[in-house]
Amino acid sequence: MVYVPRVDDSDHDAKPSTLLNNIDTAFCNIKEACEGVVYDYAHYNSLPGQTALEKVQIMCTRGGRLPYLVLLVAISFASFFLFVRIGRTLFVPSQVAVTETLMTSRIPMVGPRMAPASSYKIV
Prior knowledge:
Blueprint: H1 19-42, H2 52-61, H3 66-91, E1 96-98, H4 101-104, E2 120-122
Antiparallel strand pairs: 1-2
């Protein structure tokens, strides 16, 4: 006689797959991949492989971790460049504006289509 365990059908009432549920699952998998790499690094000497490169390859690819580690690196680069871009736009003055004195006064133009230096101010 073979024992067949009873399958619990309560999973059929689970939430449908939504974007937020998929993002949450992806971040949980990224966390587990990072924890796995840290665990393997703690047990570095017991990993199979002769060279350090073989051991690092095993650490990064064991259990299907590689796609989640690549996703982590991609998210890190994207967020870094986004913060740099936002920081540059917020904290670095990027334009020189012409004051209204250029429009209202009769100061002669200097050079081709340029106003005198006194009519410019840093914004």
